[in-house]
Write a structure and sequence with these properties.
Elements: H1 3-32, E1 34-35, H2 62-70, H3 92-97, H4 108-112, E2 125-126, E3 132-133, H5 152-177, H6 195-215, H7 219-237, H8 242-264, H9 270-286, H10 290-297, H11 304-310, H12 325-333, H13 342-360, H14 366-379, H15 386-392, E4 393-394, H16 396-405, H17 412-439, E5 468-470, E6 483-486, E7 505-506, E8 509-510, E9 514-517
Parallel strand pairs: 1-4
Antiparallel strand pairs: 2-3, 5-6, 6-9, 7-8
Helix pairs in contact: 2-5, 6-7, 6-8, 7-8, 7-9, 8-17, 9-17, 10-13, 13-14, 13-16
């Protein structure tokens, strides 16, 4: 046998053996891979509320009525001068030239009302920057910016919108009074939530409406608008995913900010102050637990087979974890070689949510927030490259999906605790002001409010201790000012220091504490 023939036979043997060697190497490699997450025995990720599909909710359900109520009223999108209220923002000069009523839309009123309360009488029409004129001709050339005083055209436009929104309030009341109020839970990548932006817009309009009513002497009407905001915030959280909860938290914050403003302007009577104090505390007690938001997010595991069918990671719309489409399809095509199948991916994501549910079910604290960071750091390390994930991780598809979704939940528990602080803090603030209105001076201690003004002094959600109270000497305010406050997300009692009311932020800076004072801070 010639040397050439022997060489050919050796190559044939190598060629036959190569696939088996490759399979053996793949088997060894798969055996060396570690699971990226382990299940937590005994932790339930199923939602406490029954899962409800959108298709199963009838026309008289809270959800369907809510959708109808928050839809923009016909005619509300246009100002009487013909300028689109939701159109591009204009400079005051350009807006005047076009006869525009608002610089950015009726939401300008939310910036205007804190500085220029709603006028009881129509403001005079001014022409060419001069004295008030009587007639309807000519351009209203006064400042239309949010910081400027009310113009006659703006006043009339708000009155027009009040008439358009009034029938919507009746529908909203039906939605909030419907039995077993609940929204459907997102269970598909195609389930969109555009109604949530409309819910938030309705909360903004309710704030405008309440301030108008209070200025006109209808304090009870203002109270009803505040109650609508609080009830609407509750409904959108029930059965909803995390974004529902965040919108509900935003609505609660709008309601609290509005209520503080009306109370400090002395536009609410003592009985209404007491009634709202009880209402804010009741909504704090009845708020949907944050752990339910995590459980609703865990519904994502049910759509894993859908993602495998689509062979795409593009389900978040603008995710920072962008995967090119060809690479995505290749990854799903060969995913089984790396241990990724619909079953294993769903199981691993369920295990991941078990860890999150176990943490979210605890009272919020510095230790709780640290547990989120520890879990994310150990499980989804941002320092691992794509090649490291594929070579060392069993089920890399599940790992990638978790890396796209889970980090967004990191600070969400703090937002929920902030919501609880806002509702409880506002309840206390209103009770103290009601006491002051009745007795001529604020109480020396918060326990003097119990039981006449509140059933109990609520605890600060950031440390579990009773809310702090300053009967005087509030930092940054005159000596006679008083305040109630929460220690906030830094978990440190800074003695009631802040520069803005009831918010962790003051523009670009951070407020050390969450404070509700008896008067506003100097600007």
């Amino acid at each position: 046998m010639s040397e050439e023939k022997r060489r050919w036979q050796r190559w044939q043997k190598v060629a036959w053996a190569a696939p088996f060697v490759l399979l053996a190497l793949v088997g060894v490699l798969m055996g060396l891979r570690r699971p990226w997450v382990e299940p937590v025995p005994g932790v339930r990720i199923k939602m406490t509320r029954p899962f409800v599909r959108e298709s199963s909710l009838g026309p008289e359900s809270a959800y369907r009525l809510l959708l109808e109520a928050v839809e923009l009223p016909i005619g509300a999108e246009e100002s009487p001068s013909g300028g689109g209220m939701a159109g591009p923002e204009l400079t005051p000069a350009t807006a005047e030239e076009q006869g525009q009523v608002w610089q950015g839309g009726w939401t300008d009123a939310l910036e205007k009302l804190p500085v220029h309360p709603w006028p009881r009488q129509p403001p005079p029409k001014r022409k060419n920057g001069g004295a008030a004129g009587s007639g309807e001709t000519g351009k209203d050339t006064t400042d239309i910016s949010p910081e400027g005083p009310w113009t006659l055209a703006q006043y009339r436009d708000i009155q027009r919108l009040r008439g358009l929104y009034e029938p919507k309030f009746a529908i909203l009341d039906r939605a909030l009074a419907a039995p077993n109020p609940q929204v459907p839970t997102a269970d598909s990548v195609d389930f969109l939530l555009p109604y949530l932006s409309k819910v938030r817009q309705m909360a903004r309009w309710l704030s405008v409406s309440a301030q108008c009513k209070a200025a006109e002497g209808d304090a009870d009407g203002a109270r009803k608008d505040i109650e609508r905001m609080l009830d609407m915030a509750d409904v959108v959280c029930r059965g909803g995913c995390l974004i529902n909860h965040l919108v509900g938290i935003a609505c609660d914050a709008i309601a609290a900010d509005l209520t503080w403003r009306l109370a400090t302007r002395r536009e609410l009577s003592m009985p209404i102050l007491r009634e709202l104090a009880h209402s804010f505390l009741a909504h704090a007690d009845g708020a949907e637990p944050f752990v339910e938001a995590i459980r609703s997010e865990a519904m994502f595991t049910s759509i894993v087979p859908e993602l495998y069918r689509k062979a795409s990671f593009d389900f978040l719309g603008g995710s920072t974890f962008a995967v090119p489409d060809p690479l995505s399809k290749s990854a799903f095509a060969f995913a089984f070689l790396a241990g990724s199948t619909p079953t294993t991916t769903a199981a691993n994501l369920e295990a991941c949510y078990q860890h999150l549910v176990a943490i979210a079910d605890k009272p919020y604290s510095a230790k709780t927030q640290g547990e989120y960071g520890q879990f994310l750091g150990e499980t989804l390390s941002p320092r691992r490259s794509a090649m490291q994930i594929v070579l060392s991780t069993r089920d890399p598809v599940g790992y990638i999906l978790a890396s796209m979704m889970i980090p967004a939940l990191d600070r969400a528990h703090g937002k929920a605790a902030q919501r609880d602080a806002i509702l409880r803090g506002m309840a206390l603030f209103l009770a103290v002001q009601a006491y002051e209105k009745e007795h001529g001076a604020p109480p020396e201690r918060l326990n003097q409010l119990v039981p006449e003004y509140l059933p109990r002094v609520p605890n600060d959600p950031f440390d579990g201790k009773p809310f702090r109270y300053l009967p005087g000497s509030v930092p940054g305010l005159p000596p006679k000012a008083w305040a109630v406050y929460s220690i906030g997300e830094d978990f440190t009692d800074d003695g009631g220091k802040a520069q803005s009311v009831g918010s962790p932020r003051n523009g670009r800076t951070t407020n050390p504490d969450l404070v509700w004072p008896s008067q506003d801070y100097p600007k």
